[in-house]
# Entry
Amino acid sequence: KAGVTQTPRYLIKTRGQQVTLSCSPISGHRSVSWYQQTPGQGLQFLFEYFSETQRNKGNFPGRFSGRQFSNSRSEMNVSTLELGDSALYLCASSQSGQGLAYGYTFGSGTRLTVV
Amino acid sequence: AQTVTQSQPEMSVQEAETVTLSCTYDTSESDYYLFWYKQPPSRQMILVIRQEAYKQQNATENRFSVNFQKAAKSFSLKISDSQLGDAAMYFCAYRSTMNYGGATNKLIFGTGTLLAVQP
# Structure
């Protein structure tokens, strides 16, 4: 069973540019969540998608957006990049069950560096 | 809002010895889930163990076990017979059973504990 695939693994962008990161969940998983990991702020929840609908959103500016496609693949976009957006972006997929303790399966992340 | 606190930024253990990582959390909810995740240098977060709050019995997975104290809001991880491969960053995480109006898979993480295993 293939794991969660995130592309690209590494990315270097210039301030002011925009970037799109991709996440392909495990087959059959309908929930995809995104997290930002930085040394200063730790792991912070960005947003969660389920069946193409955003189900939950973290406290990030509107420059951060995402979407999910009908095959459950998800993309997140960051516009007008700032130096502080440099981080490891992790994607996690899960079966979704109300009140059920399904664990997540994480990808290996995309390391974004903004210069 | 829920919070998760890991008060030990770094820990060290000798190979084959036992180590306990601490985690406390704050919530007003009565039903929730708690997790320990491991993040090795490969960056991928790996689920180590999980605990449902409604279960009084502590979860165990091979060499990994938890001490879940619901009243104290404490969720520590014990690693027995530590191995070199256990060296990693360990994160404690909380998941509510419900988001307002619906389910959620949002995880709230602690700041992590970096575990070193000495040969």
